[in-house]
Amino acid sequence: MGACFTKMVHDCGLRINCAGSWVHPGTGSQYILLGCEEGVYTVDTSLLHDGELTKVIHHRRCSWLHVHKDVLMAMQGRTSYLYRHDLVALTQKNLTLKISKPMNKVPERYIPKKLAITVRLPETKGALQCCVSRGEGAQSGAIFLCCCVPTSVLLFQWFSVFNLFFLVIDLPLNFYVS
Q1: What percent of the chain has pLDDT over 70?
Q2: For residue 25, is pLDDT > 50?
Q3: Tens of pLDDT, residues 4-20
Q4: Which end is more exposed in the chain, N or C (fewer Cβ atoms within 10 Å of the end residue's Cβ)?
Q5: 40 with 34: CB under 8 angstroms?
């Protein structure tokens, strides 16, 4: 399997920045997610011999990604933002797109954020760096996502009930470049 994957990635023209993996909870299929300059691509490992890359997530440049549960957090775009993608809904959306007609769809911008499959986090405009870590001490077991933007450092905490990262601390940075 590894040699086949290496050959497939070596032959394609994608410029890969980051990678992650995800197992679909319903089907048990394992996917490899590739964050590239051209967008986020998925590879179904059970179909690895076909050498097929499927662009299902997003078309914007991806410089960092992290998968937790069934949620993909990715730093994307030329002016980078942090995006939240619901992977289960995206895979179901791709199945229904093949079946349904394009005329029957509601534009994404009219869908409420609670129901949206992909959400851009507006407070992360110009994101420079992101990382994910588990809490220690009193916060052991908690999962935190830290995002550095030009004006502040943002700390998000994972809440399993909502299946999202929520902003818990916005620490402003006051420094001057001379």
Answers
A1: 74
A2: yes
A3: 556 666 667 788 899 99
A4: C
A5: yes
Q: If you write DSSP's letter for every residue of 140-172 in order, what string do you get?
A: TT-EEEEEEETTEEEEEEEETTTTEEEEEEEEE
User: Residue 137: what residue type?
Assistant: G
CA distance 37 to 6: 19
Please tell me the least confidently modeled range out of 1-5, 83-87, 141-145, 149-153.
Answer: 1-5
Q: Around Cβ 111, how many Cβ atoms within 10 Å? A: 13
> Please, what is the Cα angle at 92 between 86 and 96, to 5 degrees?
135
- Residue 107 to residue 129: CA distance in whole angstroms: 31
User: Which of 110, 7, 80, 19 has its CA nearest to residue 49?
Assistant: 7
Mean pLDDT for all residues in the chain = 82
What are the start-end ranges of the H helices in the chain? Answer: 2-11, 87-99
Asked if residues 88 and 25 have their Cβ atoms less than 8 Å apart, the reply is: yes
